[in-house]
Amino acid sequence: MRLKPREVPAELLSLAQRQAGVVSRSQARAAGVSSKTIFLRVSRRIWLDLCGALVLDPTQPATPHQTAWALWLRAGEGSVLSGRTALELHRTRLDWLSRLPALVIVPKTRHTRIPGAVVRRGNHGTLRTVSKFGLPLRSPQDALIDVVPFMVEQHAVDALDSAMQLGLFTHVGLLNALRDRVVPGCKHAGAITRAIQSLRLEGESHLERRFAALLRAVPGHGLQAGHLLLDGSGVPVARLDWGHATKRIAVELDGESVHGTPAARRRDRARDNALIGMGWRTLRFAWTDVVNHPSAVLTSLRTALDTAVAPAPAHAPTPAHAPTPSIATRYPCEGNI
């Protein structure tokens, strides 16, 4: 069938409408478009080559929906989308999303390469999938864990931390999900095990390092990391993430693994109330604050430091009555809380 310039067979147009404007080369040929015509239209930018598939109307930048269809059509029936592509279709607002690779899981018997994507062969009978926009996808949790072996270790830990802040995982749940992937014969067991070790060993320290880097923008801030707060008798009351002894400002960093449970939040409130009773002001920042809103964090810090007034020395006489028990007995010193 000879086509006029820019003419598209009605059958192919109808198919493209169901596939976000994307068709495979085999679908185009089956509709009567020759390989030569495909080549000429791509070279003249009438059509766009996207991951080996064809976008028939490339007037706008390719959308995540179109990229997903292009990857799936290129991989073929029986494939499953994972990684960044699946997370984008799930509309997961994950930090570091751009650093995650697009991942396509194909049947074990299939050998294929896809430009711009990681291809993994797997047993589809054991994969948990969901259907969205007519495409088979991994769930957001599975899609993230699937790509851990293909990422730089620190980038993987950053992405997993972000997922915990979004509530996709608890710290324990994430560790268990990663451990479930380490099975006999798993070629990526080493990478997954290293991610587990990083999450276990770093805990909240990764958030603290991010905050410490942010503090470089506040020269002379006077905050001390791991500040040990003592009562009037020299008894340890609490160990603060960061503290300014003169201005009585405490900074607490609320990571998901320690502060994400209802019990932990109740403990934090009691701790803050006790610090207020001692004349201290507490600022709390979560991962999303430090990573996504650093300017707001810095503004809060500067305002607190600029407006704080050092307490006057106490000259009160020794009370005749029994001293009030320090909050050390009520809220014992806990490391890195």
Short account of what is shown:
This protein has 337 residues and is an alpha+beta fold. Helix content is 43%, strand content 15%.
Describe the secondary-structure layout:
Layout lengths: L9 H9 L3 E2 L1 H6 L4 H9 L4 E3 L2 E3 L8 H12 L4 E3 H7 L12 E6 L10 E5 L7 E3 L2 E3 L2 H7 L6 H14 L4 H11 L7 H14 L2 H11 L8 E2 L2 E3 L5 E4 L2 E3 L4 E6 L1 H4 L2 H16 L3 E6 H6 L1 H14 L19 H4 L7
Helix pairs in contact: 4-5, 5-6, 7-9, 8-9
Description:
With about 325 residues, this protein is α+β, with helices and mostly antiparallel strands. It has helices spanning about 10-20, 25-30, 35-45, 65-75, 85-90, 140-145, 155-165, 170-180, 190-200, 205-215, 255-260, 260-275, 285-290, 295-305, 325-330, and strands at about 20-25, 50, 55, 80, 100-105, 120, 130, 135, 225, 230, 235-240, 240-245, 250-255, 280-285. Helix 4 crosses helix 5, helix 5 (about 85-90) packs antiparallel against helix 6 and helix 8 (about 170-180) runs antiparallel to helix 9 (about 190-200).
